[in-house]
Amino acid sequence: MRMILLGAPGAGKGTIAKLLTEYDGSVQISTGDILRSAVKEGTPLGKKAKEYMDRGDLVPDALIMDIMEARLKEPDCQKGFILDGFPRTIPQAEELKKLLEKLGIFLNFVANLDVPREVILDRLTTRRTCCNPACQAIYNVKSNPPKEDGTCTLCNHQTIQRDDETEEAINNRLETYNSKTAPLIGYYEKEGLLKTFLSLSSKDTVAEIKKALSA
Ligand code: AMP
Fold first, then answer.
1. Which of 1, 29, 111, 174 is most buried, most CB within 10 Å of its CB?
2. Bridge partners of 110?
């Protein structure tokens, strides 16, 4: 499949993308994961991106487009890809359109995950992430907690609350989503690519997306 997952922070894009990769071997491309790894490794990209990310602001479009152009040309993308967290702005969507045309790639559709704001706020404040860059398992202190001492059940590293999951950063990320990313819903509707899924359970949404792919 060749698909974009669109949705607010905490809408479940990462979880749904991971489940979809098991369906047909398409790769998940998460710009957030790529940037977090770069920050942990202290690469030049990570050094430039960190201050934006910690505040909950978007990283400049030019940096993101360089990452994506290189990533989409990697051989594993030929099996298909699920874009998770990209594009995030109209200029990114316009650049992506040109890039896909250049590479001769057509998208199946853009899945817009519609999740009520209370559900999103609850998910983001209770989320914990394994600090091991090779693991990055996601937990929820209420529904899927790590071990009692806060370590990861898979690799025993400590789980942490991400710097951008403080209340202030979360509010900023949601405002940024509303002003910069939500306009993509109208953009992809005009392009005839949008399908909206009311998403309360990741498993149900994955089943609906699979149905739409085979329709
Ligand atoms: P995410 O894990 O997708 O919520 O991304 C975490 C952070 O990485 C965001 O709050 C942004 O600072 C940055 N980021 C991820 N993807 C993008 C993108 N496509 N454009 C700009 N910034 C991004």
1. 111
2. 4, 194
> Quick one: which of 91, 89, 83, 133 has its CA closest to 111?
83
Residue whose CA is at the smallest distance from ligand 1 atom 8: 32
Domains of the chain by residue range: 2-26+80-214
The answer to whether the CB of 7 is under 6 A from ligand 1 is: no
2-26+80-214 CATH, one of 3.30.70.270, 3.40.50.300, 3.20.20.190, 3.20.20.70: 3.40.50.300
Q: Look up the pTM and report it.
A: 0.87
In tens, the pLDDT along 116-158 reads: 988 888 888 898 999 988 888 889 998 899 999 999 999 999 9
Q: Is 64 near ligand 1, meaning CB less than 6 Å away?
A: yes
Which position has the token pair 């392009």?
191
The active-site residue out of 36, 88, 128, 195 is: 88
Amino acid of residue 139: Y
Identified catalytic residue from 40, 162, 180, 210: 162
Q: Whose CA is nearest to atom 11 of ligand 1?
A: 58
**Any atom of ligand 1 within 6 Å of the Cβ of 65:** no
* Cβ neighbours for 141, distance < 8 A, ≥ 6 positions apart: 126, 128
